[in-house]
Predict the 3D structure of the following.
Amino acid sequence: MKVLFIASECSPIVKVGGLGDVVGSLPKSLKKLGVDVSIVIPFYKPIQLTNKILVQKNIRITFDSQEKSFNLWKTNLPQTEIAVYLIENKEYLSSKGIYIETDASSGGTSAEAGRFLFFSKAAIEVGNLLNIDILHCHDWHTAIIPYLIKKTNQNKIKTILTIHNLGHQGIYSKQIASQLLGIEFPDEVNCLKLGILNADIVTTVSPNYSKEILAEEFGFGLDKYLKQRKDSLFGITNGLDENTWDPEKDKYLIKNYSASQLRNKAENKIYLQRLFFKRENPSVPLLSIVSRLAQQKGIDLITKIFPELMKENIQFVLLGKGCSHYENFFKEMTSKYPEKFGAKIEFNEKLAHQIYAGSDIFLMPSYFEPCGLGQLIAMKYGTVPVARAVGGIKDTVENVKWKMENGKLVVSRDGFLFEKYQADELLSTINKALELYRNKSAWQKIQTNGMNKDFSWHKSAKEYLKLYKFLA
């Protein structure tokens, strides 16, 4: 059984968000289960590879009413034998950055349509060259592939579409799509919709999200089509690449630690305080966010409660890029509260690791969250999540319970959840976490509960293997 992952990102070769993490880590667990899996991504201009070979030059496809060509390169996922193929074409894929929109969303422009529709057609050709049995397509960038497979009667190739974020769909005018693909579309083209309706199997990145998207609130206009496919719709929770995310081995940390050596975590906190603030005090609770700065991530709730947060005896650090009005807000707050708030408006892999390790509380107040890796990483690093009970967060974080027994506070579970998407709910939940933070033994119990959870890909990979076998 030969499976080809088709995606716009693959960590560590090229990554913008969680999609890249999934594509770069799930195949490792599938390989251990005996799956012959490989990956294909665009050969973007920023990609720098020292170890690559040219597989084939000038592979031709019809696109935009002309014969176009691309070169196919091959490398491996670092420290594995998993092949990663890269499609090189200067006109559409290899002349600029990764996404057209700065926040990695789907803007619907003609340049974006050219990029990802060309990539989709070229990836199908790669699948044919490699004699692939199953094309595993990831998100809107490649969601049109199942439709194109059926349109060209290539029914021997099976398709799975994994939805990472239903809010981004790849919608293009019928004129642009018809011209580029040589197919007369009657209406505007919604790539994700076509993928949902035509893939042999559709998956989401958590069980709870697969249920939420059947309702109007989180269906983003596609709920009725998802309901049509509900018998072929499966939710499988994302995992973590434990070679990358492990506080015992993480090369970016000032001091490695584990659930049995939590005292070493404090040195990472001190380093973070020195990096962002003049004041170094391990007893002050340190809150953090590592996120795209987008409304989906609940950033508007953070801005609403910010003045109240700054009244508390806390420190707060933020790392991320995204919408300019959020970026400007946090830059302003850094100047206004230099001893309590620090922000780095950038993507910085090393600093992200250090923030997860050095902070006490991780904020994740998402409006919707298909799975979310932030809460998984935070718990793995003994940083307690305060998050909204939505999507994959609800599948992975268990709301802390506490009670008094014989004059002693007894706690169970691993995070703090709130239900309603409201600023006062978020603030109230943060205050609950801060209250328990003052009890050192109770807090350590919450930390170790999260750290001892199994967030590896092994269980999820077995679920994907069942689907592959069903299609084979």
Notes: The chain has two domains: 2-239+457-471, 262-451. The CA atoms of residues 120 and 142 lie 6 Å apart.
